[in-house]
Design brief:
Elements: H1 8-29, H2 33-45, E1 49-50, H3 51-58, H4 62-74, E2 78-83, E3 86-94, H5 96-116, H6 123-131, H7 134-142, H8 161-179, H9 186-198, H10 203-210, H11 214-226, E4 230-235, E5 238-246, H12 248-268, H13 274-294
Antiparallel strand pairs: 1-3, 2-3, 4-5
Length: about 300
């Protein structure tokens, strides 16, 4: 089983993949992340599919998936038919227009992410260690296969639906693991984690490392300080600057929450073989560096 490290760089890359793809498809296609994900999943099946099967695959409630399909139908991207043997069951498939939008959107997302995250990284390593293991990772979280959609991603798409799905469910699983222990958001945990790793940071440095606006970082720090998990004090070398450090309680809390987040990370990456875990760690670090160089915060 792979032992991929749960670093703040790895978490930031995952969160930023999701956030930036959400923005990209909203700006270029007028779709939400889950609407685009459903579109790609339907494109990969090349067949009609029931809403319940799609909901199972996407790990969404059936009502949520039904609303997604209604939106896609209103846009002329999906058509619905009644199941011959059960008129209460509706099946859906992409229209010709929907297929075109799926392919165009996949090309836009691939170009965007390759420029932002994947510069100077080899496609074959990406397919072998990251993308093509994503289907099994999603199945592990779901607990079973969805036969109609359990197909390896089409390499013409570069990013298949299972890879896009994995980013979202990884974040969801982290949030659930953290919330199961403490009433903290994911970004609040990430702040504790990076403070433990770096020991001393200014608020602007924390904002940059987490890739969040300074105003958001201020709110996070206020909550953590109110919980007596951090100290905020003047820098003795520069009275105009403040520095942030963890309290003893904050260090213990960060350690406890990291174990929970690490269990999620290692479970999701368990399809990666041992020799692949080192490749994955290197890829996450390189993607983080590419992101920071391309778009400093």
């Amino acid at each position: 089983m792979g032992k991929v490290a749960n670093s703040h760089q790895m978490m930031t890359v995952t969160v930023e993949h999701f956030r930036q793809v959400s923005h990209c498809v909203r700006e270029s296609l007028g779709l939400t992340y889950n609407e685009f994900l459903a579109l790609i999943a339907l494109y990969e099946t090349r067949a009609t599919l029931g809403a319940s099967g799609l909901a199972d695959y996407l790990l969404l409630q059936r009502k949520t998936t039904w609303n997604i399909l209604l939106t896609l139908e209103d846009l002329g991207l999906v058509s619905k038919t009644v199941e011959e043997n059960d008129h209460r069951t509706m099946r859906c498939a992409l229209t010709v227009k929907g297929e075109g939008v799926a392919v165009r959107g996949a090309e836009i997302v691939a170009r965007f992410l390759r420029e932002r995250f994947l510069r100077n990284l080899q496609d074959e390593e990406f397919f072998k260690f990251m993308r093509d293991s994503s289907l099994e990772s999603c199945d592990l979280v779901r607990g079973h296969h969805v036969d109609a959609l359990s197909v390896q991603p089409d390499r013409k798409l570069y990013f298949g639906s299972s890879h896009l799905l994995l980013w979202r469910i990884t974040i969801d699983e982290w949030k659930q693991a953290i919330r199961g222990l403490e009433p903290f958001s994911l970004v609040e945990y990430r702040a504790l984690d990076v403070l433990e790793a770096e020991e001393v940071l200014t608020p602007s440095e924390l904002s940059s490392l987490l890739r969040i606006p300074r105003s958001n970082a201020t709110l996070v720090l206020q909550k953590l300080e109110g919980a007596n998990l951090i100290h905020i004090e003047e820098d003795v070398d520069d009275g105009r600057q403040r520095i942030v450090t963890l309290t003893e309680a904050g260090t213990k809390k960060a350690s406890t929450l990291r174990r929970a987040a690490n269990e999620v990370t290692q479970a999701i990456h368990s399809p990666i073989k041992q020799n692949g875990s080192m490749v994955m760690d290197a890829w996450y670090m390189r993607m983080y560096l590419n992101l920071s160089a391309e778009q400093p915060y």
